[in-house]
Amino acid sequence: MSLEPPTYLSSLENNIRARPIPWEGAVRAGNITDDHLKKIKAVDKVRKEQRKQTVEGDLKGYTTLLAGGPDGKSVLETASRRTDIVQYILVLATDLINDAPSLASAIVAHPDPYKPFLPLLRHSTSTEDPIPLLTSTFLTALVSASLKSSTKSTARDEEALTQLFAYLSTLTKNNDSGLQDIGVQGFSALLQTQRSREIFWSQRKETVDPLVEILRAAAGAKETGSTTLGGTGSIRSLEPGIGGGVGLQLLYHVLLVLWQLSFAGELVGDDLESDHEFIALYTQLLRLSPKEKTTRLLLATLNNLLSANRTTLLPVAVFVRLPALLSNLSGRHLTDPDLLEDLQSLSEMLDEYTKTQTTFDQYAAEVQSGHLRWSPPHRNPTFWRENARRILDDDRGALPKKLAEILAKSWDNDKQVLAIGCNDVGNLVKEVPERRAQLEKLGLKTRVMELMADSDESVRWESLRAVGEWLRYTFDN
């Protein structure tokens, strides 16, 4: 999957290519060797075809030039004190493996292909230093080639992926939308295999969370002064965009990465929902989607996640009114065949689910998602009369255990979750008073009593009502 290189990166590389380097002086100073210089001059500032022919005629020599070997150190190691040469070589190296893919294969076959490059990702923490950025560009292309060359990832690939994801995430967390886009495109180039998606997910606080924040801004769910929400005029910044000022290009690339991640749907789906209310976010983005290409990615991602997590995520999709939105989309004049296929698949999946869904299923899925909302069951006396005992018994008491986990958190940014949890505990005590001990063993009575002193009025009220149910049966006894 090939994307257009980000404008800022292309401009930076062109500026470095145009810089004069006093190569002979560098040889005299011992920064590079005569052999290095001979190989550099043979491919520098020549036509692409000539460069390709030269490199393919000496794959071993150019592999040693960049990665080092028995015949000599990498030029990056000998020239480490000359930042101008290091920058120039990094740009040249990327050009070489792009123009002559067989060189990438030859470097991948090297015993330690990433050794001269990985330390350069930590050359500086300043975004003004181009060396880590240029290194990540080369390494992304090289690791991507390595992943394509084998069905099984190697330990060295996994180590390189870990370090690359960590560096690229510093770009996606930057306030500059141009740097964000470079980081996002790097992610996309690397998420080609199941293993790379697993590593990406294992670093999700660094990798996934900033991408979701960009999407929240696009959905209008976040206020900030960053360039993500309406550029500062930086040369790196992208075009003005949709909701929150997020550029359409950046939005598309973020959606592309999360679509790639969704092929590990069984691994990521439930946590995406519990951590980010992902289905509601994507439903809102679907309402706002400005282009068929963004709509296609949104639908494809939802299709992957819901297919892999039907029990837990389909009830959430119904709750956020995704079926109604899909019905609305079906009435539009859409032409993309992949989009239409995913739209039909999602509609059929949700239609089939809603025909068999019970209110208990909806409630259980909401609790298991780890985030409570004032959905209809919570305030429905009939629901509690008919289902309280089942809630306590189902799956060996899994639901009250999950309720205890939810109430144990502070929810400083969403106090209604605590209010709803207290409401549910109170209803369980009211309808099945003889099972109070089960709830007390989970620490629910103690926690509900603590919440009587909470700063939020609705939490205090619901906790007071729940404690009242306990006291009522205590006095009755």
TrEMBL record:
Q: Does the keyword Transport apply?
A: yes
Residue span(s) of domain ATPase V1 complex subunit H C-terminal:
357-475
Q: Does the keyword Lipid metabolism apply?
A: no
Keywords from the UniProt entry:
Hydrogen ion transport, Ion transport, Transport
What family is reported?
Answer: Belongs to the V-ATPase H subunit family.
PANTHER family the record matches: V-TYPE PROTON ATPASE SUBUNIT H
The record's function comment reads: Subunit of the V1 complex of vacuolar(H+)-ATPase (V-ATPase), a multisubunit enzyme composed of a peripheral complex (V1) that hydrolyzes ATP and a membrane integral complex (V0) that translocates protons. V-ATPase is responsible for acidifying and maintaining the pH of intracellular compartments.
Q: How does it assemble?
A: V-ATPase is a heteromultimeric enzyme made up of two complexes: the ATP-hydrolytic V1 complex and the proton translocation V0 complex.
**What protein name is recorded for this chain?**
V-type proton ATPase subunit H
